[in-house]
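Lab manual, section 2.4: Encoding a predicted structure.

Procedure: take the sequence of the chain (297 residues), apply the prediction step described in section 2.3, and record the output as structure tokens. A sample record is shown.
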Amino acid sequence: MASISRREARTGWLFLAPALLLLGVFFLVPVLSGLALSLTDFDAYAIGSPDLARFVGIDNYVQTLASDEFWAALRNTLYFAVLAGPLSILVSLGAALLVDAPITRARAVFRVAYFVPVVTTLVAVAIVWRYLYHPRYGVLNFLLGLVGVDPIHWLGDPHWAMPAIVILAVWKNFGYNMLIFVAGLQSVPKELYEVAAVDGAGRRHQFLHITVPSLAPIFLFVGITTMIGSFQVFAEPYVMTQGGPLGSTRTLLLHMYEEGFRWWRLGTASTIAVLLLILTLIGTAVQLRLRPDRNDG
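Recorded output:
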């Protein structure tokens, strides 16, 4: 029996080996390389001659944490995450409930229609949304004008640039989480709703006491992935505003990109990447800690 167990273990490791190799090459190696670079002053000169890079220890971390630009980018990132994360989850859940409703016809059509923005290139999306956000000819300002609201310079006003990016990001990405919620809704036993209806429970009570608890693992997964995606937001502010007026949409990832590929301060860029990783791990740990089904025993 022991030999069989060892043989099964070797077979299991053999099947895991390709995945572990890919994980090591494309995750562990870049992470360790980024951590190593963050402890040096690696810059444009060191690219041609790596021996010019000097070990500086935690100096990059000290300088980054003392930088006003870093804290402004962190505030923008947290602002985006706090605003876009819950909004994206609510929109995704609402769309999933509509698509999965018994009275809905042509469900496959709606699923495809809602998922199309996810796979659409951001450049094409940006062109369309720039017209929607145009201060004089945009559809949004036209609709606001119908109710007496003055035109808003969506992408040029520091107060409105980030909300405009949030609306775009939610619209483009909610379809992915919607499909996950649809799968979760379809896994809830229909008998629970039938029994609740017999007991006199209305739609609201069924949703609060059956649907929401049944979707707890889905909420956890969607919450973590959405939070990670929000911390890594880059393409939307880069394509739409290039950081926005007065840096109002300059996120951590955009700040890291500019440090690394505009100013060629790769050591500083790696430092920001490590700090972003730490922030993401903290956010994930908090969500895991607060999950409703956590076993404290």
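Check your result against the sample. The chain has a mean pLDDT of 89.
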